[in-house]
Structures are given as C-alpha cells and as structure tokens.
Amino acid sequence: MPLKLSLKPGEKFVLNGAVVQNGDRRGVLVLQNKASVLREKDIMQPDQVTTPARHIYFPVMMMYLDESGAEKFYEEFATRLNEFMGVVRNPAVLQDCIAISKHVMAREYYKALMLSRKLIEYEDERLGHVSSGVSAGGDAG
Question: Which of 21, 86, 96, 113 is 20 to 30 Å from 10 at the Cα level?
Fold first, then answer.
C-alpha cells in the first residue's frame, strides 16, 4: 500500500536514514514500498532527550530509523520503559506502555513511536509545560 506524504516548502524528513529536504514549493511524495520515513517534527535530537518519556521515545525512534541495528537501542528502551512504568499510576498510560512494548517486540517501531508520543504529551501535561522536541500529533510512515 503506497504512502503519500504532503510536504511543506523546505520541510525535511528522513527516508531510510537519508535526510531529504523538499524544495521551495509544496510537494507530494508517494512511496510505493515499505520504507522508514520520519518527518522533521517527529525527529528528536540527542540534546532533546531531557525527560523520562523522551528517554523512551528516542531509542524507539532509533530502532525505527535503523532496524538492522535495533538491538543496540533495545536495552536502553527496556530500561527506561521499566523505570517509567514503575512511577506512573495512570491505568491508561500504563496500557500505552504495554502496547509500546508489544509493538517493539513485534518490530512495529513506527506504531511504538507514535504511542510513545502520547507518553510525552502525558508527561508534559503533568509537568505543566510543552518542551521542545517532537511536537504533538504527527503522522507519517
């Protein structure tokens, strides 16, 4: 099933590890086969990994972008998810954590990544701020 990306002028995205930037006009890209694609707004830089939920998101993102090297990021993911689940009491958030883990185990990294965004949103609500890095509500891939 093809994936259609509508791109803003100058928008960057990662396609199978390559950083690509759209030109000066809106554009549409249709991917005909499976590929790892992340829009700029979904890409977290290492210096943005500043909270427990972001410590979950980042290794999941890296597993998605580098599936062949996923093992090297898995231990960090598992440790951070375990820590997060040890302090969270919200049943819905705990269910999201379980679902994230199941998606990672099934190598469904994009699904895990999008659920991990919910953890960041939950955390930001509890901390009373919206931090930089990974905006709310994105869809690509």
Answer: 113
Alpha-carbon torsion, ordered 92, 55, 101, 123, to 10 deg: 10
pLDDT more than 90, % of the chain: 72
Query: What is the rounded distance in angstroms from the CA atom of residue 15 to the CA atom of residue 80?
Result: 27
Element (H, E) at 38: strand 37-39
8 Å CB contact between 94 and 129:
no
Between 109-127 and 52-65, two packed helices, what is the crossing angle to 10 degrees? 160
- At 57-101, the pLDDT tens digits run 999 999 999 988 899 999 999 999 999 999 999 999 999 999 999
Gyration radius (Cα) of the chain, Å:
15
CA distance 63 to 71: 8
**Residue 117 CB neighbour total at 10 angstroms:** 19
- Tell me which residue of 32, 23, 26 sits closest to 4, measured CA to CA: 32
How much is the pLDDT for 59? Answer: 98
Q: What is the pTM of this model?
A: 0.84
